[in-house]
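Section: Multi-chain targets

For targets with more than one molecule, the full set of components is provided together so that the structure can be written out for the assembly as a whole rather than chain by chain. Components appear in the order listed by the source. The example entry contains two components.
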Amino acid sequence: MASSANSNPVPKLYKNVIDDVINEVRELFLDEGVDEQVLLELKTLWENKLLQSKAVEGFHTDEQKALQAAQQQQQQVQQVQQVQQVTQPAQSQQVILPPQQQQAPQQQVIVQESKLIHMGGTGMSAAATAATLALPTAVTQYQQLLTSQGQILQLVRGPNGAQYIIQPQQQILLQQQMQPGGVQAPVIQQVMQAAAMAPQPSQAATAQVQQVQQAPGATAPQASAQPQAQQQQQAQPQGQQPPMMLQVDGTGETSSEEDEDEEEYDEDDDEEKDKDGAEDGQVEEEPLNSGDDVSDEEDQELFETDNVVVCQYDKIHRSKNKWKFHLKDGIMNLNGRDYVFSKAIGDAEW
Amino acid sequence: MAYQLYRNTTLGNSLQESLDELIQTQQITPQLALQVLLQFDKAINTALANRVRNRVNFRGSLNTYRFCDNVWTFVLNDVEFREVTELVKVDKVKIVACDGKSDSSCSAADVLLCFCASALFFF
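Its structure, encoded as tokens over all components, is:
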């Protein structure tokens, strides 16, 4: 954006204020006997919220810069891993292909999008597995923890520095984008979950999120095709999936029809299906929205924000219905973005 | 005492939220949080006065105005904010302005009151 060319003063100003405040209150914290660590946490929280608000452009903390560098590296690594996984012998049914690199909106949506389950082959073929599941770009690290019950908890570390443990409770269908020719299991990956749940057609219904589908049988990939899988496929392997996809769940058929309908219907119905048994309604909604809004949010001028200017007035003048405003030292939030001014002069007719 | 006016901004709100989180986890006391906010008021007032040096012009149509407790609240429609570098247009904007001259402390409460009251008053 053009503003960056003229060095938008806002990020610097905010950083200065943050640093000033933190430094000034350090003493207060020590007086109260509060650890320095808490002070740092305050700073981190503060900065993260600013980042999340997207109100400031070019507000980079050091951590964010490091993350961006790491992200790029990760993408390359993940792509390499894709290839590697495909070539693995297919004794295990688990040939997991990482999802396509999604343009995850910033780094924040990670948690929602990454409700993916990577199956480590509980009790099945020993080999294979443990292909790293490629998560959306912004995720820096993740680890898989295999609980004693065979449930896989995914430890995700988002760029915020916060760690999330994602417990897969839904069924997600992993779609392979490349087909390893001659692999026994066709496209669909089955994940065993300790908490067996009926396929939730509405779950994880986003274009970006892959779905792992649970099937009772370990070996034969009896893919119960979830209609959503068909909806959301981005790079569906060509021609191999359809014959194998059986629909086990009952509510599936409606959603494909509604796919043609307006979005709102989808969401409503999806929500209803969610309530049938799923817990994670939010997973579905956010990916749904984020899938649509990624570019929109950036381009769209009018957010829902209340455009607000907080400032001081030097002089307010009125002549009949002509008003003149002389303002100073203001912070503005317009269209979701922050601006500042030392002086502002305005005219308006009432 | 510096104006508490700026607590209801992105910067101020994120600070308050962060402090609230720390209070919830009992890492700091509410008293300490208040001190931090007071310090924030000072810092932001000083920063705005000293570090910022740009001018903005704007034009629009005035929908409502209110002057209460020495706080002006305006709602303008179809406004263009013009800076040297860029132009921003909004359909509606609310301007809240405390007295820039006197030393009267414009508390956040006053400002909020005017925020809310104006909604009742004019709409």
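The mean pLDDT of chain B is 85.
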